[in-house]
Task: structure prediction
Amino acid sequence: MADAPRTAAAGTAAGSIERCPSCAYDLSGRSSERCPECGAEISAARAAAARRALRRRRIWSAAMVLFVAYAPYAWILFVDEPWNAYRRLWLARWPIMPMMLGTHILLPATPNWAKLAAAGAGTALILALAIALAWRSGRWLAGVATVVLGLSALNALGLYAAFRM
Ligand SMILES: [Zn+2]
Result:
């Protein structure tokens, strides 16, 4: 027990890991290829742990981008208006709202069904791009989330004005 701090420090040295990623057995101070507890190959277990961490980070980043992209349109739920067909129509268009105003401006003389299709495709494209950028790093996620939140808030205000017209 007296030398625990020293071995813990050795466990954090480059090329070694403190705990088996498979069974969490304490590996500090060991340099063997396999975990003595569960027999997991350390480099393979480490690679699997890295893949799991990457997958978690990507799911979290995508969820974050989608949340800031769609949350500003939550006014549809809270606005003091009757729950009539008009409001339900707007609610149904929540998924394509990020590009609804944009397609109305860019494609003014287009039939309504084509505008909706373009808004859907544009939204999917823009969100896929934002998520791909957010996956690059934590700093990219923070930057992308900030920009998306700002644009979505402005867009949500515009759509709210259109809703009340
Ligand atoms: Zn193990």
Remarks:
- The pocket of zinc ion is lined by residues 20, 22-23, 25, 35, 37-38, 40 (CB under 6 Å).
- The helical segments are 4-11, 42-70, 75-78, 85-92, 100-106, 112-134, 138-164.
